[in-house]
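Ticket #4471: structure output looks truncated?

Reporter: J.K.
Steps to reproduce: submitted the chain below (169 residues) through the standard prediction queue, then opened the result file.
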Amino acid sequence: MTMFVPSITVDQVIDALGAYIQLFTTSQIIRGAVNRTAMPLSPFVELTEVTSISLNKPIETYTDTTEIISEHVKLEVQIDLYGWELSDTARALHSSFRTIWAVSQLPESIVPLYCTEPIKMPIQNAEDQYEQRWTMTISLQYNPDVIVPQTSFNAPGTNNLIPVDIVYS
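Returned output as attached by the reporter:
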């Protein structure tokens, strides 16, 4: 594990989004794209990161001993809602996510940007049965800072001159 960890991680953003979605449903919320794991029984909500895009060049600020590297990141998360009873939840999520109320429900370091319209996209399961699924993509912005060491001249020291002609002759 590295010692230079961002001030806010993708896992923390996904957890905050999951807590927000939990306000609208009692269904289980899982993280997508996990190998060798069977899907739970519906109803459930699956969150999968789709893209992570830098919105700016990193901004560097300095203190006496550290460099703070800041960046604005847009994270897009696909939300899949499985189960017949979650179609209204998809609509409620879409409507609420585009309001100032959503901003107040998420941590200060995470800002909702926009979301796509919910789309009905049933899938065929292993038993050749169709599963009800609504899908939409939510875009968020978060601003991670990474702090790294920085050497600098911050206090005058003593000047120890070495008489070269005497020491090295």
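Triage note (M.O.): checked the attachment and the full token line is present. The chain has one domain: 10-151.
Status: closed, working as intended.
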